[in-house]
Each structure stands twice: as structure tokens, then as C-alpha cells.
Amino acid sequence: SIFSIASAAVLCAITVVPLTVALAEIHAHRKASSAAGSPDPNSTALIASSLWKTIKQPMVLLPAIGVALVLADVRVPEVIDNMLTLIGSATSGASIFLAGLIVAAYKIKIDFEVVGNALVKMIGQPALMALLVASIGVANPLGREGVLICAIPTAVFAPLIAPHYKVYEAESASTLVLTALLMIVTLPLAILLTGA
After folding, report:
1. Engineering a disulfide at 76: which of 2, 80, 135, 169 sits with its beta carbon 3.0 to 4.6 angstroms away?
2. In the 8-state DSSP scheme, what is residue 106?
3. pLDDT band at 31, cuts 50/70/90?
4. In whole angstroms, what is the distance from residue 159 CA to residue 176 CA?
5. Alpha-carbon torsion 40, 166, 8, 113, what sign?
6. How many whole angstroms separate alpha carbon 188 and alpha carbon 14?
């Protein structure tokens, strides 16, 4: 259902995205310190600095504000709601288009790491979700939807953010392409096995 997909997207936006950005900030800071020949900064200060930079990023701050507004049951004026709905309906297509441009900028490489990434994402993650759903007794349709959401390709977030931090660029683009290709097999299989 749309609720399950929206919930998964929001959960990712307020957990995975900030963690990824914070880790990328820490990596960038350590790389800059190493290039300058300065000693590694204090770990606590580095983490605090990276978290502060992460919180200020619009891709982290805006979803958090949105979640807070929804939880506080704040109603926005209809004009603003219509505007945000229009913008929101264009973001998926725009992000996939941008990811396509980024993927086109790198030579796709299929190595052990990329294949491992794709197999964990497309087989391991749905299998783990199916195990969790069965072990804690999540009822359908929610349990079935959880497994199916795990069987979709990797998000375009990694290839979009990798060039900014100059890390894992070709690998993230290659993983995106490979998971999209694997989806041709894994998603119908997941639908068949879950009875969706």
C-alpha cells in the first residue's frame, strides 16, 4: 500500500540518510586532515562536527521537519499543500533521471564487491525481512509488503551523494545498475513467494 511505501521512505530519510551523510562527512574530514598532513582530530569532536554538518543538510533537515509537522498534526494551507504535492510528484522521476546521468558518467564495473552489494540487497535483505516477518508474526498485508519493499533495487541516494564526497562513485553507480537488472528476476519471485 502507499502507506507502507511512504513509511519506508520516511524511515530511510530520517535514519539511513543522516547516518550515511554523517559517515561521509567523517570520511571527508579524515581525508582532508591526512592530505594536509595534520594529525587525526579527536574522535568525539570529529563525530560532533560531522553530526552538526549533517543536521544542517537540507536532505536531512527537511524530512525531519516534515515528520515533526505530521506528528504534531500541523495542517498547512491548501495552497502550500498543493505546491508541495506537485513538487513531490516530480522528485522521483527527477532523481531517477539524475541518477541515470551520474551512472552514465562512470564505467560500470562488475567486481566481487558490487556483486556482493547487489546480492545482499536483492536476495539477503528480502530473505532477512521474510524471516523477521515470520518470526515475529507480522500479519498480511503488512508482512508481505515489507518483504516486497526489501526486494526493490537500491535507492538512488548513494549514487547521488557519492560524487559530492568523492567516495564510492563507480561502485554505487554499478550497484544501482546491477540491482535494477536483478529486480527483473527477484521482484516477480518475491511477489510469487509472498502471494502478493
Report:
1. 80
2. S
3. confident
4. 8
5. negative
6. 29
d(CA 193, CA 185): 12
32 burial type by CB count under 10 A (0-12 exposed, 13-18 middle, 19+ buried): exposed
CA angle, 47 then 48 then 51, to 5°: 85
Contacts of 138 (CB under 8 A, 6+ apart): 132, 146
Q: Which helix (H) or strand (E) holds 177?
A: helix 169-194
Average pLDDT over residues 85-106: 82
* Amino acid letter, residue 94: A
Determine the Cα–Cα distance for residues 173 and 20; give it in Å rounded to an integer.
Answer: 16
Question: What pTM value is reported for the model?
Answer: 0.76
Phi and psi at 78, nearest 5°, equal -60, -35
Instruction: Using the predicted structure, report yes or no on whether residue 134 has a pLDDT greater than 70.
Output: yes
Which one, of 12, 93, 105, lies nearest residue 59 by Cα? 12
Q: Rounded to whole angstroms, what are the CA distances from 187 to 102, 105, 143?
A: 24, 27, 15
What are 196's three cell numbers? 502478493
For the record, the C-alpha cell of 16 comes out as 539511513
